[in-house]
Design goal:
The complex is a heterodimer of chains A (about 350) and B (about 325).
Chain A: H1 5-11, H2 13-20, H3 25-47, H4 62-69, E1 77-79, H5 85-91, H6 95-102, H7 136-150, E2 156-161, H8 168-179, E3 184-190, E4 193-194, E5 197-198, H9 199-202, E6 219-223, H10 227-242, E7 248-253, H11 273-278, H12 282-292, H13 298-321
Parallel strand pairs in A: 1-2, 2-3, 3-7, 6-7
Antiparallel strand pairs in A: 4-5
Helix pairs in contact in A: 3-4, 3-5, 3-12, 3-13, 4-5, 4-10, 6-13, 7-8
Chain B: E1 2-4, H1 5-19, E2 23-27, H2 43-47, E3 52-54, H3 59-71, E4 75-80, H4 90-96, E5 113-118, H5 134-137, E6 143-145, H6 150-162, E7 167-172, E8 179-181, E9 196-199, E10 204-208, H7 212-219, E11 227-231, E12 234-236, H8 240-250, E13 253-260, H9 266-276, E14 286-290, H10 299-305, H11 309-322, H12 329-332
Parallel strand pairs in B: 2-3, 2-4, 4-5, 5-7, 6-7, 10-11, 10-13, 13-14
Antiparallel strand pairs in B: 1-8, 6-12, 9-11
The chains are: A alpha/beta (about 350), B alpha/beta (about 325).
């Protein structure tokens, strides 16, 4: 239960500190880099055979995670997909708890039994991330429903990809939220690809936001490479949700630098497409913006990059040296049917 | 108080809603219309539209919303009009709700109830007459209970709402209008995971679930043998202790199922008892089930589809007198050839 949070909040104050640090623009940029280097390292660890299973990385989409996290309150609820390392880190989860989870360690966010696709942290409102495309969309509507019924000043956010807008859960979730005027924001990260397929091969519309019209829902198309644009759009939608104005669909245009999962090199992409998007890399854009505003120098930026690389290197060593999840972990937090 | 099963369910919902402001109910036509089977009559008037909600025909949407609402402070009760409609929402129950507590390290539960009407007997045909318990059976994290009348419906619905886990209540539709004496209040609540011995005997243990409990009881009339008749009530988890204790005394187990022969709910119980009570068994475990066909529409065939009390009696006559299993009627009648 979220509400029992007193003790939880004390124990997890590190998450809240990380969340609050996003009030500082340079820290936002720092966090974007943390996500980027973290994900780069995850890909290497998989390639080196040090992590098993699968993973879905977030490089290229960092501005969206930061824009959302800096705008929401820690008491708001967030539902995400299996591509959620970046959002989890932005919301405040520590790199130890995320990497620990990915590597099946006891220090993982849920004790190592979930893995890369299953992150969760009640202290910052992150509901269990779903490995089912679109699975979290009606769930977010439900988290908003509880706020509405209980009269709490809380809203819910569902983050999902363009591919999810073709699944029934998207349409049912948006319709229900609209009919009941739920305080929820649906954020589509349109990264051009659903698994291995380009959006034009699978989706009847180029702009997902068009689908909001079917649900009488306000919508915006946002430059997903810009932290400020994302944050402003999320702020408008959240304000509408909290003031009883109902749900909003936001479409953030972005690009997935990696393939769908670790097994996918993304070779189906047209030549030059990735390069075009790299010209508008969200981290470079934000860096230039901070330098322009006099908040960051090129030298300081270089130092920060090095520091984060070192932090990530130490993180990997620390997590790999930490104990694996104990056998007892798989029997926790589940009602057992009684099989003997 | 004597109530119809549908009234007992409405009482159970109302009693929990009065005690706990977190309980809300939602489903198709459950508010203004009082429920397609009148299991929520009067609730909208008493509790208002914030807590009693008509939904779109959108099971994935509103069952998913129940998961999110349950995780963040409510105790939603969702009605699925016909259990088949759970098919389009199964992801949210099996893959989300059942795993929420596990996948959040215990921080977010999904204490929700899914009520669904099930079963044959009212002429609804192949797509509205199944029981489908085994859709949920192999899902750790879920519980599943099946009332056999008004009394158990009241007690199980209240227990389901209080449970910290997602609980499915599969309500035999044919019993909604049946009257039974019901114990209202706290003492009427039935702990999940417990069966009930409705008849004591020596020669055989008969286990029923839902509407086959009545069939099993009726089958024990005018027989040369006597039987323990157990209403299982709860399928996940089921009362292993009660069943095994009974089988240890009688030496024979008969499962009367409103499910297909292949993969019906009794397979799990038969398998467990066969290995756990092997030395106490005098005869093979007998499953009396429906044939492996869809539920037929016309009344005479729908009646034939479900094991009748006469058929159950005949099958047990053979079991008790020979310690061998009689063939099911569709085999003896040559219908599979």
């Amino acid at each position: 239960m979220v509400g029992k949070g007193g003790l939880l909040v004390m124990i997890k104050s590190q998450q809240l500190q990380r969340r609050e640090s996003l009030n500082d623009p340079v820290s936002r940029w720092d966090r974007m880099l943390e996500i980027r280097y973290f994900e780069d390292r995850i890909k290497e660890l998989f390639a080196e055979g040090l992590v098993h299973g699968t993973t879905h990385t977030y490089q290229g989409q960092e501005a969206i995670a930061i824009g959302i996290a800096m705008t929401l309150r820690p008491t708001d609820n967030v539902c995400c997909t299996y591509r959620s390392h970046g959002i989890a880190l932005a919301l405040g989860m520590t790199t130890d708890s995320v990497l620990g989870e990915i590597m099946g360690r006891a220090i993982g966010s849920i004790g190592g039994v979930g893995g890369s696709m299953h992150l969760s942290d009640a202290s910052i409102g992150l509901l269990p991330t779903s490995a089912i495309v679109g699975g979290g969309i009606p769930v977010a509507a439900g988290a908003a429903l509880s706020a509405q019924v209980l009269g709490e000043d809380r809203c819910a956010v569902a983050v999902f990809g363009d591919g999810a807008s073709n699944i029934g859960a998207f349409h049912e979730g948006l319709n229900l939220a609209s009919v009941w005027k739920l305080p929820v924001v649906f954020i589509c990260e349109n990264n051009v690809y659903g698994e291995y397929s380009r959006i034009n091969l699978t989706t009847s519309v180029e702009d997902i936001s068009i689908r909001a019209e079917s649900y009488s829902m306000p919508t915006e198309i946002i430059d997903g490479q810009s932290v400020d644009k994302v944050a402003q759009g999320v702020a408008r939608a959240v304000e509408r949700a909290r003031s009883g104005g109902g749900p909003t669909l936001l479409e953030c245009k972005t690009y997935r630098y990696s393939g769908h999962s670790r097994a996918d090199a993304g070779l189906y992409r047209p030549a030059g497409e990735l390069e075009e998007w790299l010209k508008r890399d969200p981290i470079d854009l934000y860096e230039a913006q901070l330098i322009e505003a006099g908040l960051l120098s090129k030298e300081r930026a270089q130092t920060i990059r090095q520091e984060i690389q070192e932090r990530i290197a130490q993180l990997v060593e620390r997590v790999m040296a930490s104990p694996l999840a104990d056998v007892s972990a798989m029997f926790r937090n589940i009602s057992i049917g009684g099989g003997q | 108080m004597k109530l119809r099963m549908r009234q007992a369910i409405a009482h159970a919902l109302a009693d929990e809603m009065r005690q706990d402001a977190r309980v809300i109910i939602m489903g198709e036509d459950i508010a203004a219309a009082g429920g397609p089977f009148k299991t929520s009559e009067g609730l909208l008037e008493e509790f208002g539209p914030n807590r009693v909600r008509d939904t779109p025909i959108s099971e994935m949407g509103f069952l998913g919303a129940a998961v999110g609402a349950a995780a963040t402070g409510l105790r939603p009760v969702v009605e699925i009009m016909f259990v088949e409609f759970l098919g389009v929402a199964l992801d949210q129950l099996v893959t989300e709700a059942a795993k929420f507590r596990y996948l959040s390290g215990g921080a977010y539960g999904a204490p929700l109830v899914v009520r669904a009407s099930v079963g044959s007997g009212l002429g609804f045909g192949a797509q509205h007459s199944q029981t489908l318990e085994t859709w949920l059976y192999a899902t750790p994290g879920l519980k599943l209970v099946v009332p056999s009348g008004a009394r158990t419906a009241y007690g199980l619905v209240r227990a389901a709402i209080r449970d910290e886990n997602p609980v499915a209540v599969f309500e035999p539709r044919v019993l909604y209008a049946e009257r039974e004496e019901v114990v209202l209040g706290e003492s009427g609540i039935i702990p999940i995971g417990t069966g009930e011995i409705l008849n004591k005997g020596n020669d055989v243990t008969i286990v029923g679930l839902g509407q086959t409990v009545g069939t099993a009881l009726a089958a024990t009339q005018s027989t040369t043998w006597t039987a323990d008749v157990i209403d299982l009530r709860s399928l996940i988890p089921w009362d292993r202790e009660m069943v095994c204790e009974s089988v240890a005394r009688t030496g024979r187990l008969v499962l009367v199922e409103e499910s297909p022969f292949s993969g019906g709910w009794g397979t799990e119980i038969a398998s467990y008892v066969a290995s756990e009570c092997f030395s106490e068994l005098k005869a093979p475990v007998l499953r009396i089930t429906c044939p492996d066909v869809p539920v037929p529409y016309p009344p005479h065939l729908e009646k034939r589809f479900l094991p009748s009390s006469e058929y159950v009696r005949e099958q047990i006559d053979v079991l008790v007198s020979t310690n061998k299993r009689d063939q099911p009627w569709w085999v003896k009648g040559g219908y599979l050839s």
